[in-house]
Amino acid sequence: MYSIGTPGRPWGEEEKKQWLAAQTVKRSYADEVLNQLEAVPDYFSVIQYGALPYDESRYPLYALLPKAPLADAPWVLVTGGVHGYETSGVQGALLFAREYAKTYFDNVNLIVVPCISPWGYETINRWNPLAIDPNRSFYPDSPAPEAKLLMDFIGAMPQSFLLHIDLHETTDTDNSEFRPALAARDAIEQKAWDIPDGFYLVADEAAPNLPLQQAIINEVSKVTHIAPADENGLIIGAAVPSEGVICYDKRKLFLCGGFSHATYCSTTEVYPDSPSATPEICNRAQVAAVEGALQYLLK
Predict the structure, then answer these.
(1) Element (H, E) at 153
(2) Considering the domain 13-298 in this protein, what is its CATH number?
(3) Model-level pTM?
(4) Domain extents for the chain?
(5) How many angstroms separate the CA atoms of 78 and 164, rounded?
(6) Helices in 161-278 by DSSP H: which ranges?
(7) Taking Cα atoms as reference points, which of 225, 232, 223 lies closest to residue 280?
(8) 46: number of CA atoms within 13 Å, CB side?
(9) Angle 31-111-149 (CA atoms, 0-180°, nearest 5)?
(10) Digit-coded pLDDT (tens) for 233-276
(11) Which residues cross the membrane (predicted)?
């Protein structure tokens, strides 16, 4: 039983306040994210597109946009840190922007949004302070400012996106903390599944584009191991149509990977709790995923 709430009864405002009071800051968004923006190549303009209302001075939101967009080149969106606790989603996006994006400047227009949920990053949380999961909140009039501010910013742009890759992790705390909290908050029993040991992808059920997903898997496999299916042939309860790939209906679930309406999309899932994983490996796996997708599109 979770430590907050009454079994069988969804949380009200009092339980949400109890949950919020139990959260603590464990790392610095300013030190680990904002300071790194100073090192991105001159190709990028660093644009503030909003600030989280919990503390606007502490949680400004930034995107990296091309200073001089190429007129006939496709647009690519890379997002990280929708779930702030998934560290390599943030650090992998920053690493790609700093050290690897320059390879593609002559062929695509890159937008990188490295940390959508900075409060979640600092407190190592899946939810925001309102006990809302931003990655289930990409819909009109979203109550999650993390989602709404990004949708408003991207939605105001005239261009369409050829590719959107959203960088995530699946961690052991998904089972030990976040799914039990979800079950308590909503008073709905959550199905249990084994955390897969390795990297996998979540494609869009409506347009999975499996050759793209396989190209990403092939590139990531040079950096870290790919998650095998479990004894039932599934990964986190979902069918596996291609090695290391599952599918979700991203728009129906209001996921970040679906809001941009990109022609091609993929959500990465790095496994940082593997005995063979290190923060460096996890960050480079995220970079490899972005590069695998770009190389596939540019063939």
Answers:
(1) helix 145-155
(2) 3.40.630.10
(3) 0.98
(4) 13-298
(5) 6
(6) 173, 179-186, 210-220, 256-259
(7) 223
(8) 18
(9) 70
(10) 999 999 999 999 999 999 999 999 999 999 999 999 999 999 99
(11) none
